[in-house]
Specification:
Chain lengths: ~35, ~220, ~220
């Protein structure tokens, strides 16, 4: 039961972190394309 | 003064061609049919659902009506001609919103009797309150509708863009309309649900004011 | 125009922000009290709520940028509005994802029509329309103007949306997160730290996005 809670927390925070990293990567790619 | 002229113009055009009200009425009728056939529900369920269903129908036919109201302006580039006249842009917005409200009210007057009949509804005796709800509701719908139509009129896929913009923006107003209709329908006295009416009125005031001030930025060329 | 990260100061700030975020996560994992019935899942609150607040702040920025753009038509305001809309929507999507992830273990369902979550959903839908308008609106300068108008209209709608949804159904009253300030300080402090760090992250993302918009805009003109 407790493990279930921890999985939720983990998945939530992983999703947040990965989304933000992907966002940054996208910006870098867009920048390089136009130079 | 200009305002009355513009409203008269819109209404006269409509009464000659009837190409807004008739499609709205037909569409509304079609939705009622589909609902009655799909659900074939008992009278109790109908009574529970009909306030929400009524406003869904009103929302859909408004979407249709807004499209057609502004399509007329697009054809023959009539809008540019209207803009050429030295009229305050805000007045154009008001005239569109008010004439839209009137057309919507007429469509509703046509659609409500069939609605009551096919849904087998028994309605409370103080129907004049419902007329008030419809009036304020329509004003709210048309105020935000006129703004959004102005934005989407010139876009590609404007028939698709309009509902996508319109529905989320108008949803709080619709919630209030449905709530009010629901309480009226159940026969509760006005004091209980007056806050919903106030919400509707605030919506109308906010967006009439906003539309009036902001419409000139929509109509610049 | 050069790459954003070819400037020394930007690299330094980026590393700093990154470090702050790592610290934030460490702080949330280690220094927060374990809430009795929610255990680990409750800790989602430490970033779910700041992200939600910043998302709304971002939409406020869209409205302000919209007003400024309509007043003096400078491109920078248009870019600010667009950048804030994008990042705001990203944050709002994260709220809509982390919300259900938090709700499922606690209340047993993925979704409830809780007022704040519902308001966030409606706002998200409005902004889907915003991006459609930007894409299909027509002439670039007309699109900029229309997007500015929509940004203003959208934010005026937000309080009305919130109040209508809040009183919509009694059983969907705000989830018992209670008033943040009335919580015990062991919870409030990490929350505020998280809020500050995520705000810093947001500002940095905004600055970067503005830079990229400026670069691509100039490129298009050439």
């Amino acid at each position: 039961m407790e493990n279930y809670f921890f999985n939720s927390f983990l998945s939530a925070i992983v999703i947040v972190i990965i989304s933000i990293i992907i966002w940054f990567i996208k910006q870098i790619i867009t920048e390089r394309k136009h130079l | 003064m200009m305002f009355y002229t513009l409203v008269r113009k819109d209404l006269l055009l409509e009464f000659r061609a009837k190409e807004i009200i008739i499609p709205m009425f037909a569409f509304g009728l079609a939705i009622i049919m589909i609902f009655a056939l799909s659900f074939n529900a008992s009278q109790a369920i109908n009574h529970a659902f009909s306030p929400g269903l009524l406003w869904i129908i009103i929302l859909f036919i408004s979407s249709l009506g807004l499209n057609r109201m502004f399509v007329l302006e697009k054809e023959f580039d009539a809008f540019t001609l209207t803009l050429a006249a030295p009229v305050d842009r805000g007045i154009i917005f008001l005239s569109k919103a008010i004439s839209g409200t009137i057309l919507l009210l007429i469509a509703e007057i046509l659609i409500i009797p069939p609605f009551i009949i096919f849904m087998n509804l028994t309605i409370p005796s103080d129907w004049h309150i419902m007329v008030l709800i419809l009036l304020i509701g329509d004003l709210g719908i048309m105020s935000i509708g006129a703004i959004v139509s102005g934005l989407s009129m010139r876009a590609k896929l404007s028939e698709m863009l309009l509902p996508i913009l319109f529905f989320p923006l108008v949803s709080p107003h619709i919630i209030a309309c449905v709530k009010s209709t629901n309480y009226w329908f159940k026969g509760l006295s006005f004091i209980n649900w007056q806050s919903w009416i106030f919400l509707m009125i605030s919506f109308v005031l906010v967006f009439f004011l906003l539309g009036f001030m902001i419409f000139e930025y929509i109509t610049e060329e | 125009m050069e790459l954003f990260f070819s400037k020394r100061i930007n690299v330094i700030v980026a590393v700093f922000v990154f470090t702050l975020m790592v610290f934030n996560i460490y702080n949330i994992v280690n220094n927060t009290p374990m809430v009795p019935d929610q255990f680990w899942a409750q800790k989602i609150f430490y970033f779910h709520v700041p992200i939600a607040w910043i998302g709304f702040l971002s939409y406020l920025i869209v409205m302000i940028a919209g007003i400024l753009y309509l007043i003096n038509k400078k491109t920078v305001w248009d870019h600010l509005g667009f950048a804030a809309a994008e990042i705001g929507t990203l944050f709002v999507v994260l709220v809509l994802i982390t919300g259900p992830i938090w709700a499922k273990p606690i209340w047993g369902t993925w979704w409830t029509w809780e007022p704040r979550l519902t308001t966030t959903l409606i706002l998200f839908l409005i902004y889907v329309g915003y991006f459609m308008l930007r894409t299909f609106g027509g002439h670039p300068e007309r699109t900029s103007r229309y997007a500015a108008v929509l940004g203003i209209v959208a934010f005026f709608d937000v309080p009305i949306i919130f109040y209508s949804v809040r009183f919509w159904e009694e059983k969907y009253q705000s989830h018992p997160q209670v008033e943040i300030t009335k919580q015990n300080p062991e919870i409030v402090l990490p929350f505020l730290i998280s809020l500050a760090i995520i705000t810093i992250l947001f500002s940095f993302m905004l600055k970067y996005r503005l830079h990229v918009l400026k670069v691509t805009h100039n490129r298009k003109i050439d």
